[in-house]
Each structure stands twice: as C-alpha cells, then as structure tokens.
Amino acid sequence: MCSQVSISILVERGLCSSCGACAAVCPFSAIEFPEPFSLPRVIGDKCRLCGLCYRICPQVGIVDEVRGREVKPLATYMARSTLAEVRGVAQCGGVVTTLAMYLLDRRFVDAVVSVGRDEYWRPVPKLITDKLGVLEVAGSKYTYVSVLTLLRDVVRSDAIRSVAVIGLPCHMRAIEKMRRLKLAASQKVKYLISIFCMHNFEYGVVKYIVEKFGLDIKSISKMDIKRRFIVKLVDGRVLEVPLKELDQFVRACCRSCPEFVSTIADVCVGSVGAEEGWSTVFVMSERGRGIVEDAVRDQYLEVKELPEKAMKIVAKLISMKVGSR
User: Fold this and answer.
1) For residue 199, how many other CB atoms are within 10 A of its CB?
2) CA dihedral for 316, 321, 324, 325, sign (positive or negative)
C-alpha cells in the first residue's frame, strides 16, 4: 500500500506527465488541473492521503515495469484511411481518426476519449460521440494534456457503456494500473489506441515557436515531428525547428520514460518508417487485430506490408529510448 502519500511528490520532482489519471480516480475530488496542459494541484483540505493517485500513476515504477517488456506486435502494416473527409484533415495516414470513426459507426463503443485543441493550439480533452466530433479533433498535438480526467465523466454517464481511449504510452500504463485495481474509471474502457512517442512538450513550445518566427498563432495549420519540429502554416509555408532547441520544454517524466511503443494498447500508430501519406501500424492484441481487419474489410482502411526497413527504424527508436533512460 502507498497510503500517506499523494502525487504531489511526483509533481515536485518533475515526474508528472499530466495524464489526468489521478484526478479520474480520486475518491475525494481532491485533485484538479487548472488547465488541461498544466500540472495537477492537490487540494489540501480534501486530500485524505489514501495513496490511490500514487498507485495508478504511470510514472511510478516505470523503469522496472517497462524495461522487461518486449515489443511483439501480432501484425504490422502500413495503412491509410480510405475516407476523403479524413485524409483532408488527419495526420499522416489518418489511421487513428479512421479507427475512432469506425468504432463509433459500428457501435463497438459509445464514445471516444481523445484530444482536440482550441484556436490557440491549447490541447483540450474531448469526449466524442459522433463522426463530426472525430473529424474536429483529427491531427496530433505535441503537448502534455490531462485527457484521462474524462474517465470521471464516463463513469458518471449512464448513456456511455463503453469507450475507446486514444493517447500515449503513459496514458495506457495508467489505465493498466486502474484495471489491476479494478477501479471504476477503467471498467468502461474497451479499446486502447496509442501513438508512438519519444517525448512530449510543455504548451510553452507553441508560444516559443510563435515568438521565434513572429507568427499569428491562428496562422498555424499543422504541427509534425520528423527529426525536426515542423510547423505548417495556412499560407503554405513550412517552418522547422531543431528538436534540441526545444529540450527546455521536455519534462523529466519523458526523459525517464523508456517506452516508445505501448505494449498495453490494442493498436499503436505512428508515422515512423511509413511512406508519405501512410501510417505505421502495430497490432498489439487480438482485440486490436479484430478492429483493424474489420476496418479493412469494410473499406475504412487500406493496408500493405510494412517494409523491413521501416521495422528496423522503429526497432532502433525503441532501443534508443530504452537505452537512454
């Protein structure tokens, strides 16, 4: 048991990834996020130091838990959406957006837990129940966000019986810990879709880029990471920033995380190794295999073999992340 302790100690040490799991499970509503991208705050007069938030934190015991896990996908693909409305707004191949849409269309889930953004590129947790909502949150946001706080709303909703969660490896680890403890916050989670992740950034990275190039923040149409931080503007210009220049916006939690591909998720998706306009897909569970194969059969996705060269690139990044932590 980890009683007499809260996530405050992790926040103080810079080890919090703002996943939001702590706020989702707190039985006393003693944890809040002033902003979705900020660090959590423990409300002293409400906290009973039960230790539950600490027990489900994905950063606790991370090295011991993750280092021993071998990434063994059941299947690998290059994939892309066949849906024109998705390919017009999505990141890379639009696989994550399309799988979310497919799960809702086929009523495999009642809602999808994901992340949108406002006009200032601030990340916003979103509980999505329809196709339009999925399209509105398409595309990657490279900033910390407390998306798992939405599981509180899921628990309280009689209308929502099952959800898919889209997130990063840290979000997947938090849900795994909730499942071990049989917590209500995880009981309606049916599917887990994870994005490949080297590390995330503070929201300050957006402000830094805007100031560096003298931009109107509303002129940014898309952000991407391909060896450099890439910013695409609505006027067609493309700006690049060396990742090393942005190290100041990476938290200690990311520097200590050895997980590039989630071994807990049902499906993992990224752009690494894929051709332009396609995504690399790792199927990690039989449940994941089922939804990918069904989406292909129903012509939501098209897939082709993932080249050996792409596999080697992903394997190298997995090794790099484990070795540097």
Assistant:
1) 20
2) negative
266-291: per-residue pLDDT in tens? 999 999 989 999 999 999 999 999 99
Name 117's bridge partners.
123
Residue written as token pair 């601030």: 122
Condensed to tens digits (0 to 9), the pLDDT of residues 97-121 reads 999 999 999 999 999 999 999 999 9
Distances (CA, A) of 215 to 239, 242, 259: 11, 18, 34
- pTM, entire model: 0.94
Helix H or strand E segment including 204: helix 204-213
CATH of domain 204-248: 3.10.450.750
- Tell me where in the chain the CATH 3.30.70.20 domain(s) lie: 8-64
Query: Which CATH number applies to 8-64?
Result: 3.30.70.20
Fold held by 70-201+250-323: Aspartate Aminotransferase; domain 2 (3.40.640)
Nearest to 198, CA basis, from 236, 159, 168: 168
For residue 116, list its beta bridge partners.
124
Closest CA to 173 of 92, 64, 251, 249: 64
Every domain range in the chain assigned CATH 3.10.450.750: 204-248
C-alpha angle 277/137/298, rounded to 5°? 60
- Residue 167 CB partners (closer than 8 Å, separation 6+): 19, 113, 115, 147, 148, 192, 193, 194, 195
